[in-house]
Amino acid sequence: MRIFVINTLVLVLLALVSVLVYIRIAPDPVAMVHRPVPEGAAPGRPVMLPGGYLMEERFALPPPDLAARLHPIITATPRTRLLAGDLPASGGAGHGLSGVSGRATYVTRSLVFGFPDYTTVEVLPDGAGGSRLRLFARLRYGQGDFGVNRKRVQGWLARLGPALPARE
Fold first, then answer.
1. Helix residue ranges, H only, 26-62
2. Range of the domain at 132
3. In a domain, 168, yes or no
4. Residue 70: how many CB atoms within 10 A of its CB?
5. pLDDT at 100 (0 to 100)
6. What are the residue ranges of helices labelled H in 26-164?
7. pLDDT tens digits for 131-150?
8. Which CATH number belongs to the domain containing residue 29 in this structure?
9. pLDDT tens, residue by residue, 72-120
10. Any residues with CB less than 8 A from the CB of 80 and at least 6 apart, and which?
11. Within a domain: residue 153?
12. Lowest-pLDDT range, 7-16, 21-30, 55-64?
């Protein structure tokens, strides 16, 4: 009986380690996650989803200027990198990856287990020289994220916000 229990524990441990290794090394499904931000949020009215956060804000800066300020804030976040897409940059050029201009998807991995969270960002013109900023942060694995995506997006907006005039 003792051998059976030990063997079972070893098998369970190996299965757990295998799942965690897979999560760390699994390729990011670019075609699945780099899609338009869904509708539903409005300025000042974000939408909480199971394991996700959807928000929209308006700014009085043109899209290239807003993107030029936002992109470095996002990529300065630990364990975050640009996965796909291109935000508009001053002079009309993007940040170097092909894709839909005005939309970029970033992946942020958790510190311990490397769980990926994806954030799709859209910086769109909003008439009279302003911008609409739409962000959709969500997890890939599991049902809930304990508010991590909401906190990350709100942190980006807090770092961006003091320097930018909002639009009604």
1. 30-33
2. 2-163
3. no
4. 24
5. 47
6. 30-33, 63-75, 148-160
7. 999 999 999 887 878 889 99
8. 3.30.530.20
9. 999 999 999 999 998 876 444 444 433 346 899 999 998 888 899 999 9
10. 74, 106, 107, 108
11. yes
12. 21-30
Q: Within a domain: residue 127?
A: yes
What span, in angstroms and rounded, lies between the C-alpha atoms of 93 and 25? 32
Give the count of domains, the chain.
1
At how many degrees (to 10) do helices 63-75 and 148-160 cross? 130
> Residue 67 has which token pair?
């993107």
State both tokens at 45.
Answer: 């009215």
Q: Which two tokens stand for residue 44?
A: 């000042």
pTM: 0.83
Number of C-beta neighbours around residue 94 at 10 A: 19
E strand or H helix that includes residue 6: helix 2-25
Note whether residue 56 is domain-resident. yes
